[in-house]
Amino acid sequence: MGVLSNGRSKISILPFLSTIFSLLALVTESSNLTKDYYKRSCPMFDQVVTQIVTTKQMDTPTTAAAVIRVFFHDCMVGGCDASTLVASNALQGKTERDADVNLSLPGDAFDLVTRVKTALELQCPGVVSCADILAVSARNLVKMTGGPYYDVLLGRKDGLVSKASRVAGNIALPNMTMTRIIDLFKAKGFTVREMVALVGAHTIGFSHCKEFSNRIFNQPDPKMNPKYMEGLRQLCANYTKDPTMAAFNDVMTPGKFDNMYYRNLQNGLGLLATDQAMADDPRTKPIVDEFASNETAFFDEFAKAMKKVSVFQVKTGKEGEIRHRCDQFNNV
Ligand code: HEM
Ligand SMILES: *[C@@H]1O[C@H](CO)[C@@H](O)[C@H](O)[C@H]1NC(C)=O
Ligand SMILES: *[C@@H]1O[C@H](CO)[C@@H](O)[C@H](O)[C@H]1NC(C)=O
Ligand SMILES: *[C@@H]1O[C@H](CO)[C@@H](O)[C@H](O)[C@H]1NC(C)=O
Ligand SMILES: *[C@@H]1O[C@H](CO)[C@@H](O)[C@H](O)[C@H]1NC(C)=O
Ligand SMILES: CC(=O)N[C@H]1CO[C@H](CO)[C@@H](O)[C@@H]1O
């Protein structure tokens, strides 16, 4: 640009050219997400992601839940910008993934993104963002486990900030009241119906005993099915000594993305206090009942809400970068 403005006074065509250049720069900077963002710059994008995600999920079926959870957390803390993937470092200190609430964020998700990124860097170096890899991987894994398909727009940049201190207040906890959770989602533009659908992701995956120990040991929750409680007590008997102990979020069909989660809630088979509370609260119960009896209604709403999550506060243009490695910023 410097060269162009120096020449402006000398040659008459240059002002015109420079206008075009600044227009181009503007377009690039505010460029919106598109479905075929990598069509020219990385034509193998879809194929590479699909192949690696499929292989990893078949080898390690815990991957799907891990990736969906990490993706959701990433988006809720400063937008879908892969900031959750950054390891703690000297420059920014303790990062999102090492916030206390993130202590249990699963390694399979980080491993998957690293594999996809490594493969894509060989095909088209410096082109594909970690944020896009995470968004498409999560979508593919919802589908692979039996859930709905939705389009994911592409062109996210990777964020330049990741701080553990930004996690608190953005991520729902199982000991929060329903009002608090509704407010938390509302503050990010999500309706109660979208919230109920999104939490339906708990139709797959695990929770560690400490996340629900209170309602099976200290203050046994009368809403919980007694036989289920007995089973969980046995499973978690030793959880303080062995903190890796975990239970399926959906005790009936733990690896299948279906509407069983909502049917469980109707039968006192919700694992987390907040899960079970959704079947009780007058604001959420009608939606739980609807999703429990109509899987299509759940899938439609989940797909719509995930699409919305996946563009939440995304960064484009100079707001971010294409990380060379998903676990560190480029300037370290
Ligand atoms: C009321 C809001 C929510 C609360 C309180 C909550 C809380 C939790 C907790 C405590 C765990 C267990 C973590 C562990 O022990 O490792 C968990 C797991 C999980 N959450 Fe949520 N969550 C909420 C909403 C969501 C949403 C909106 C999604 C995705 C769209 C989601 C996806 C998952 C998945 C897939 C797992 C299983 C992770 C795995 O197996 O590795 N959650 N959640
Ligand atoms: C991006 O697209 C969305 C939806 O099409 C639109 O609402 C928004 O204004 C666009 N943003 C920019 C920066 O072009
Ligand atoms: C909820 O749990 C978190 C972490 O387990 C804890 O720091 C917080 O104090 C608890 N909040 C309430 C209201 O009990
Ligand atoms: C409890 O955990 C300890 C430490 O991991 C282990 O040695 C012991 O066998 C466990 N006991 C039961 C009943 O699971
Ligand atoms: C189930 O939900 C879908 C999508 O909202 C709707 O079109 C359909 O009519 C519902 N089916 C029943 C039996 O209510
Ligand atoms: C402090 C701490 O244990 N942080 C963990 C957060 O989650 C990641 C991913 O599983 C772990 O690697 C960190 O050790």
TrEMBL record:
Reactions catalysed, as given in the entry: 2 a phenolic donor + H2O2 = 2 a phenolic radical donor + 2 H2O
Pfam family, one: peroxidase
Main location: secreted
Source organism, top-level taxon: Eukaryota
Site keyed Transition state stabilizer: positions: R69
Keywords on record: Calcium, Disulfide bond, Heme, Hydrogen peroxide, Iron, Metal-binding, Oxidoreductase, Peroxidase, Secreted, Signal
GO molecular function: heme binding; lactoperoxidase activity; metal ion binding
Residues spanning the signal sequence: 1-30
Residues that hold heme b according to the record: H202
Cofactor(s) needed: Ca(2+); heme b
Positions that bind Ca(2+) 1: D74, V77, G79, D81, S83, E96
Domain Plant heme peroxidase family profile: 32-330
This enzyme's EC code(s): 1.11.1.7
Cellular component, GO annotation: extracellular region
Keyword Heme: yes
GO biological process: hydrogen peroxide catabolic process; response to oxidative stress
Binding site for Ca(2+) 2: T203, D250, T253, D258
Cofactor binding note of this UniProt entry: Binds 2 calcium ions per subunit. Binds 1 heme b (iron(II)-protoporphyrin IX) group per subunit.
Catalytic machinery residues: H73
Class of the enzyme per the UniProt entry, highest EC level: oxidoreductase
PANTHER family reported for this sequence: PEROXIDASE 6, PTHR31517
Functional note: Removal of H(2)O(2), oxidation of toxic reductants, biosynthesis and degradation of lignin, suberization, auxin catabolism, response to environmental stresses such as wounding, pathogen attack and oxidative stress. These functions might be dependent on each isozyme/isoform in each plant tissue.
Entry protein name: Peroxidase
Organism per entry: Carnegiea gigantea
